[in-house]
Amino acid sequence: METSLTCCARGAILPTASSQQYSTLASPRSVSPSFSSKSLRGSSIYGDSLRIVPRSSLKVSKAKSSALVTKCEIGDSLEEFLTKSTSDKGLIRLMMCMGEALRTIAFKVRTASCGGTACVNSFGDEQLAVDLLANKLLFEALQYSHFCKYACSEEVPELQDMGGPVEGGFSVAFDPLDGSSIVDTNFTVGTIFGVWPGDKLTGVTGGDQVAAAMGIFGPRTTYVLALKDIPGTHEFLLLDEGKWQHVKDTTTIGEGKMFSPGNLRATSDNTEYAKLIDYYVREKYTLRYTGGMVPDVNQIIVKEKGIFTNVASPSAKAKLRLLFEVAPLGFLIEKAGGYSSDGKQSVLDKVINNLDERTQVAYGSKNEIIRFEEMLYGSSRLKAAQPVGAAA
Ligand code: FDP
């Protein structure tokens, strides 16, 4: 396994588009047989130019509450970071393999041809809509990791057997390309995934995740991840040479007037949500909303402040999926020092009863989540240390 891991780190397992059909995905069953093995070949799609940030110019990680994480430095490669952060070799391998898939997806998004209603991969030997291609690449990466038991995606919401072990292995839920409706407008889009131990993706909670991550395909490509055993949410930048470099830790989400209001149509028949939006406007919050959940939530982690809401109403039902989107992003936000809520509880405390379960959600700083719960339901489970109106 060590040899394979080294191979991952060098980028030699980059799965590339192939003309082979994904028959397992074409007719999904409740639990499919293992994917057939596929040839994963190296790729030279990345240029040769080097743009490595010298370690000396980068600050050392501020996170102090774990002996492991204090050894992790800004400037580390993804593999160095993971090796310092966890002794679980299976998890390291899985996160490395997903990193390989993410950089391939970044390239496919960047070079897609957009027209009509779809953005299609136009580079290489396979013509496929980019969200379906992303879906395929992620399943391939998980199978190749050898540590994934089951996987399922928003595109294929049934458990697929990836062939890995139950004991010491993981099950992974992912949204291959969240915000696929804004790929053509060249807005930032992203992949979301959550990693659970063993073979269960239902009857578990978001708090049971051992890791979660987003791949963010914008002007820059980043891999933002959190691991259960270490504090903080960690951002890796994809360098020109194809390596992921650790560039930021977030361990605190503070107060600040920035809002990102999803499902705004619900304000027409949810008066509490309408009042909450009025509050943000009256208090002169800055609106920062793209309509893509990945960049809209990522900005809270990067700017270390703000609130994202996606609230339901009788006529505008909850649409965000607990398993594929809400729980993994909740894990990233809470590991970053923020809070999440469905109005009454942390989204990490919600039991995932079925793969397609939907929920309303808010992510943000503590005071923002208190305000969200109080304005929607009259009280908050979080004890306010100071009056809620006191946001900076
Ligand atoms: P999209 O439909 O474009 O895939 O997850 C679905 C999602 O995007 C989120 O990325 C986004 O936050 C949300 O839908 C936007 O919904 P509203 O238009 O209702 O705000």
From TrEMBL:
Pathway stated in the Swiss-Prot or TrEMBL entry: Carbohydrate biosynthesis; Calvin cycle
Location of the protein in the cell: Plastid, Chloroplast
Domain Fructose-1-6-bisphosphatase class 1 C-terminal: 255-376
Main enzyme class: hydrolase
SUPFAM superfamilies in the cross-refs: Carbohydrate phosphatase
GO molecular function per UniProt: fructose 1,6-bisphosphate 1-phosphatase activity; metal ion binding; sedoheptulose-bisphosphatase activity
Residue stretches making up the Fructose-1-6-bisphosphatase class I N-terminal domain: 69-248
Keywords: Calvin cycle, Carbohydrate metabolism, Chloroplast, Disulfide bond, Hydrolase, Magnesium, Metal-binding, Plastid, Transit peptide
CC cofactor: Mg(2+)
GO biological process: fructose 1,6-bisphosphate metabolic process; fructose 6-phosphate metabolic process; fructose metabolic process; gluconeogenesis; reductive pentose-phosphate cycle; sucrose biosynthetic process
Gene3D superfamilies the record matches: 3.40.190.80, Fructose-1,6-Bisphosphatase, subunit A, domain 1
Reaction(s) catalysed by this chain's protein: D-sedoheptulose 1,7-bisphosphate + H2O = D-sedoheptulose 7-phosphate + phosphate
E.C. number(s) listed in UniProt: 3.1.3.37
GO CC term (a single one): chloroplast
PROSITE patterns: FBPASE
Family named by the database record: Belongs to the FBPase class 1 family.
Quaternary data: Homodimer.
Protein name per Swiss-Prot or TrEMBL: Sedoheptulose-1,7-bisphosphatase, chloroplastic
Origin species: Sesamum indicum
